[in-house]
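Supplementary Methods S3. Input chains for the assembly prediction are listed below.
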Amino acid sequence: MKTVQFREALREAMSEEMRADENIFLLGEEVAEYNGAYKVSQGMLDEFGEKRVIDTPIAELGFTGIAVGAAMNGLRPIVEFMTWNFAILAADQIINEAAKILQMSGGQIGCPIVFRGGNGTAGQLGATHSQSFEAFYAHVPGLKVITPSNPYDAKGLLKAAIRDNDPVVFLESEKMYGDKGEIPEGEYIIPIGVADVKRAGTDVTLVSFGKIIKECHAAADELAKEGISAEIIDLRTIRPIDYPAVVESVKKTNRCVVVEESWPLASIASEIAYHLQNYAFDHLDAPVKRVMQSDTPFPFSPSLMAEALPNPARIIAAVKSVMYK
Amino acid sequence: MATKTAAKKPSKAAKTTRKSKASKFSKATYIKWYTDMLLIRKFEEKISQLYIQQKFGGFLHVYIGQEAIAVGTVSGSQKGDKHITAYRDHGHPIALGSDPRVLAAELYGKSTGCSKGKGGSMHFFDVERGFMGGHGIVGAQIPMGAGIAFAEQYKGTKNVCFCSFGDGAARQGALHETFNMAMNWNLPCVFIIENNNYAMGTSVERTTNVTDMSQIGASYDMPSFIVDGMSPEAVHEAIEEAADRARKGNGPTLLDIRTYRYKGHSMSDPQKYRTKEEVADWQAKDPIDHCLKVIKDNKWLTEKKITEIQDWVKKEVAESIKFAEDSPLPTPDELYKDVYKEEYPFIKEYLA
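Predicted structure tokens for the full assembly:
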């Protein structure tokens, strides 16, 4: 094992796959000469050259469309968005084209492509730079959606995403790129669609994903001091969701709190709650609770930011509520 | 020949290169153009009738009047080249040799359709013949076409992508982003404005101060030409020249091909935005009539042979409709097929 930063894990995944397959290339704003806005692609231009590591103008819709066209014609692009907030400009190509071309062409044209970049809040960046896109993209049949929470998962899942023959939305975080974690020296793959039990427990199931899962760990540590054993399930993949993993955990704990760094309406938490009432109704000892980001555009001021985000105190309160304590 | 944009002030009526005698194009080419254009037109006239009779649903946008662009583009292109266009997409696959039977079946949503009944009129595909689709989102195919060309360049082929869109689509921001990158990256793409002067019911004059659309390319130093879209000869020459530029590694070209759709934008268009005289003026330049005249003037075919072609077209159309009507609808299990490459739904037991 070795210790790497999240950004290095992503870089290893891309570089290993690019060494193995000539048809894979990376494009996006500042990915080449600048070595990546967040240094994910550092050194890749030197290794792979300008044919395969391509700086684009600031034209999200255009370069995403070019990448989609290239994927339709035999290549396997990786598109880096500086943040997913900017990818809203490219949503036509992701949602209307990449996600639908296989079906609308009656299976004639596939779109093996990875769209990746920073997602969610990242400090005091204001409302337009602080959105999470899991629920947006998970809504769309034809896409797969992945949100890793640590370097190990990031590398294994990104490799799986690059090898996948369908379009994959890969959601990272500016706040996680510097996170360190252990990964194996050799190659490994983590299959898409498989959740991971990050912490085993018996009293309550915390379901979460992405960087906000750190708040679940902090809450679980506090709860343990009070004798409450929380199980943490990291969904890792948001489409397809590993429903069985969640349902089986809740059958054991009988209680569930979903923690999500996004708005409440039509959220992944709502989706999890629906499936639990449908498939674990008789096992639930309390209604499913959720701890969400405030139902507001994300604020700038530190005091309001603290108010808006899920935190250990709010998670603990939700856990105590489902335990009637 | 196509006129260079920079040469003169924008011309309203494009120049013509029609030659009824001593043409550089062969007898075989004219017969092929005539036959293919006639097939496109008769196919669309028939499906328009059937649509009005509600034999099939969806939107229907016909190409009638614009046929010279499809056949001139195909005759000026090579095997291995790719073609992509918008939702007015019946002409290109027919010109490329797709069987009209599978196209008709697609209109009817039948499993034998070119897209297995999953695309409909706006989403024809025939990858085997290089037809990368009809696309329903106006202008979305502009960056995709450049991306298809990008892949050809990346793989080191000499193939070109012909990317067609209307004068309406040319107002999308995606065009400008794409033109910039296509020039910057020297992509082997020929951008074709099928300029029929109307974005649905809104004329070019009403949407811009720069009515000479070939000028759009000038912002990006893209070689740009105005072409007579009622002349398959002019289209063929412009396409061949642009494709040759791309194949030699000299990047994209913009062709502002002036054409006209005789019918409405879609079947529900009352056409109050134009006069009957304007339509008649363009119909007087009809490319099918023109090709037939060249054939007759050169005595390349006897009246009997011409009638045989016309009868063959009639029979093809009739057989296509019969094939479509006799074909089965997709079975319910097709619903979840072709959504992903792998089996779907992913987790059946938890399907909502």
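Chain B touches chain A through 50 residues (CB under 8 Å). The CA atoms of residues 232 and 330 of chain B lie 38 Å apart.
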